[in-house]
């Protein structure tokens, strides 16, 4: 089976220790987590892990099964890139003088649909959201001018299809 | 906050008064029906032990001689009784000594709650005396774990712990309780947990899957059942037997499934796996339908997956969705509790018999009997065999005993030749293969089934890993029968060295002490048998005794266990010698 990119979405209770439990499942199989994001979800009190891995479908299916088995996990899914809308965010910290000396930088900011989030005496910060390749491209464009600091977030994604977590939780309360 | 995510039910034992966390733990244990627990005290769990002192008329705490002994005893208790085993230890080394038992219980799906003391809350993370991150350490080997740092959390978390341990596919839960939470007082009330919103213990059976499975079973010409412990955990022994008999299907078992159906049942065709029976292993690759029930296609069962039952359709009755299609691709998965799903499928099954196909198993058994079994249980050579000892125990117990085995050659021989009439009679460390399991597990097994004869069968290697638990047997005068099959070797490793490592016996020769004297040092009646003529009488004497009894049998030093599927080989390549 061919390796490909998968986005794993995990809806869970917000409990200390769950991250450890989930990361252990990848560790056991020597599967590298390419990116990880933990945030709140559309449901109050429910957390969402977004995990990106490059592996085979058989492995990702097994892993999602093992993740979903954890007591505090409500539901876990995996999707291919085609099935999701996904983005990453990046911050570029650049010396302030370049903003005035290098006219090109302003064009890069504009052309890449990015924003200046702060300007200080010594530096300014550009935020860019988008696909990985768009961020990489912008990085390439800015690199010749000197980047003081760079950081990129993990992938965040929503699926094109519906995620029926609320219905699932509702079922629990109705059975009570 | 926990409350909104849990379903609870009021219990009668409602006590509305301020009590300490430690006392609350006693009330939680009692509310969950606990009357025996195993453990070892220490600094961080002293408030709990102080309460155990006050509750000793209701809670029988057994002081093992090592925390590993406590956790295996709790496992033995749980396995034989179907109840939740409870073990207790202090922080640091006390807690880490539980880890092997947790891993064993996790892989063998044993319901267990372990309670560990922890340093007081404000010291957490400071590398305090006997502080260890047992939550971090135990995460991969527990079904669930939780650290309690406030006394108020105790009732809800304990209720959840017991619920999670025993529901669905059972497993071990570890609750770590900081010392301040044991001392602090709060208003106690207890509600049993009946549901956790993020956890579905038992999937609902799908009628379509049941129908599809029934169609395959009714159409099959050469069907074969392989059942595992899921049948025992689901209390589905009667349903399994009914299915086997109605459809006339030869049925084999994994070692964890042993004893769910009588050994002597005509359709019980024996054990699958590395040292299982010849017929069921070979015929796995000849059946047209493989019906797996409550088993997980462990590598010791399947051998090489690329050549495992490729010709057959596969049905998998399973409670744990994550096990389906994990190792073997299945055509129909019937999710749910085995008692429920087997009960539901039974009316859809047509009465049938597969005599010709069943005869294939009998023919293979004849071959195995001549080549292996006869030599094992009725040997004519001079040295004693492990098999003949088991056979004598069968005779003396009338196949009624609970057999507890450790790990290695004696375990495989024990599982192959011990005969069972009752379910929950074969207690062994299956998935983890934990040497040292048997002696403490036999203590728990005896306490979980006082009306039954419990025989621990142990090798000379594994025996010495937890030999200190003789102290418990002596102190509590527990009539456990201990049989050490002594070949002065780590026999199974030696066998592999002989077969696969050109007889380089690296560190497998054991220089053993006088085991009889050691048992006598614990005031346990002890005998040694080295000759065949004495065996039968001594085994009978042992089984007739109403006291603890130790028997060392000096067996042939270099016997091998056959049949055998070498690691990575196909079940078709099973060797008879």
TrEMBL record, chain A:
<dbReference type="GO" id="GO:0009099">
    <property type="term" value="P:L-valine biosynthetic process"/>
</dbReference>
<dbReference type="InterPro" id="IPR039557">
    <property type="entry name" value="AHAS_ACT"/>
</dbReference>
<feature type="domain" description="ACT">
    <location>
        <begin position="7"/>
        <end position="87"/>
    </location>
</feature>
<protein>
    <recommendedName>
        <fullName>Acetolactate synthase small subunit</fullName>
        <ecNumber>2.2.1.6</ecNumber>
    </recommendedName>
</protein>
<comment type="pathway">
    <text>Amino-acid biosynthesis; L-isoleucine biosynthesis; L-isoleucine from 2-oxobutanoate: step 1/4.</text>
</comment>
<dbReference type="InterPro" id="IPR019455">
    <property type="entry name" value="Acetolactate_synth_ssu_C"/>
</dbReference>
<comment type="function">
    <text>Catalyzes the conversion of 2 pyruvate molecules into acetolactate in the first common step of the biosynthetic pathway of the branched-amino acids such as leucine, isoleucine, and valine.</text>
</comment>
<dbReference type="GO" id="GO:1990610">
    <property type="term" value="F:acetolactate synthase regulator activity"/>
</dbReference>
<dbReference type="Pfam" id="PF22629">
    <property type="entry name" value="ACT_AHAS_ss"/>
</dbReference>
<dbReference type="InterPro" id="IPR027271">
    <property type="entry name" value="Acetolactate_synth/TF_NikR_C"/>
</dbReference>
<keyword id="KW-0100">Branched-chain amino acid biosynthesis</keyword>
<dbReference type="GO" id="GO:0003984">
    <property type="term" value="F:acetolactate synthase activity"/>
</dbReference>
<dbReference type="Pfam" id="PF10369">
    <property type="entry name" value="ALS_ss_C"/>
</dbReference>
<dbReference type="GO" id="GO:0005829">
    <property type="term" value="C:cytosol"/>
</dbReference>
<keyword id="KW-0028">Amino-acid biosynthesis</keyword>
<dbReference type="InterPro" id="IPR054480">
    <property type="entry name" value="AHAS_small-like_ACT"/>
</dbReference>
<comment type="pathway">
    <text>Amino-acid biosynthesis; L-valine biosynthesis; L-valine from pyruvate: step 1/4.</text>
</comment>
<dbReference type="InterPro" id="IPR004789">
    <property type="entry name" value="Acetalactate_synth_ssu"/>
</dbReference>
<dbReference type="InterPro" id="IPR002912">
    <property type="entry name" value="ACT_dom"/>
</dbReference>
<comment type="similarity">
    <text>Belongs to the acetolactate synthase small subunit family.</text>
</comment>
<comment type="subunit">
    <text>Dimer of large and small chains.</text>
</comment>
<keyword id="KW-0808">Transferase</keyword>
UniProtKB/TrEMBL annotation, chain B:
<comment type="pathway">
    <text>Amino-acid biosynthesis; L-isoleucine biosynthesis; L-isoleucine from 2-oxobutanoate: step 1/4.</text>
</comment>
<dbReference type="Pfam" id="PF00205">
    <property type="entry name" value="TPP_enzyme_M"/>
</dbReference>
<dbReference type="InterPro" id="IPR045229">
    <property type="entry name" value="TPP_enz"/>
</dbReference>
<dbReference type="GO" id="GO:0050660">
    <property type="term" value="F:flavin adenine dinucleotide binding"/>
</dbReference>
<dbReference type="GO" id="GO:0005948">
    <property type="term" value="C:acetolactate synthase complex"/>
</dbReference>
<feature type="domain" description="Thiamine pyrophosphate enzyme N-terminal TPP-binding">
    <location>
        <begin position="20"/>
        <end position="135"/>
    </location>
</feature>
<dbReference type="InterPro" id="IPR029061">
    <property type="entry name" value="THDP-binding"/>
</dbReference>
<dbReference type="Pfam" id="PF02776">
    <property type="entry name" value="TPP_enzyme_N"/>
</dbReference>
<feature type="domain" description="Thiamine pyrophosphate enzyme TPP-binding">
    <location>
        <begin position="406"/>
        <end position="553"/>
    </location>
</feature>
<dbReference type="InterPro" id="IPR029035">
    <property type="entry name" value="DHS-like_NAD/FAD-binding_dom"/>
</dbReference>
<dbReference type="GO" id="GO:0003984">
    <property type="term" value="F:acetolactate synthase activity"/>
</dbReference>
<dbReference type="GO" id="GO:0030976">
    <property type="term" value="F:thiamine pyrophosphate binding"/>
</dbReference>
<dbReference type="Pfam" id="PF02775">
    <property type="entry name" value="TPP_enzyme_C"/>
</dbReference>
<comment type="pathway">
    <text>Amino-acid biosynthesis; L-valine biosynthesis; L-valine from pyruvate: step 1/4.</text>
</comment>
<keyword id="KW-0460">Magnesium</keyword>
<dbReference type="InterPro" id="IPR012846">
    <property type="entry name" value="Acetolactate_synth_lsu"/>
</dbReference>
<dbReference type="InterPro" id="IPR012001">
    <property type="entry name" value="Thiamin_PyroP_enz_TPP-bd_dom"/>
</dbReference>
<comment type="similarity">
    <text>Belongs to the TPP enzyme family.</text>
</comment>
<keyword id="KW-0028">Amino-acid biosynthesis</keyword>
<keyword id="KW-0786">Thiamine pyrophosphate</keyword>
<dbReference type="GO" id="GO:0009097">
    <property type="term" value="P:isoleucine biosynthetic process"/>
</dbReference>
<dbReference type="InterPro" id="IPR039368">
    <property type="entry name" value="AHAS_TPP"/>
</dbReference>
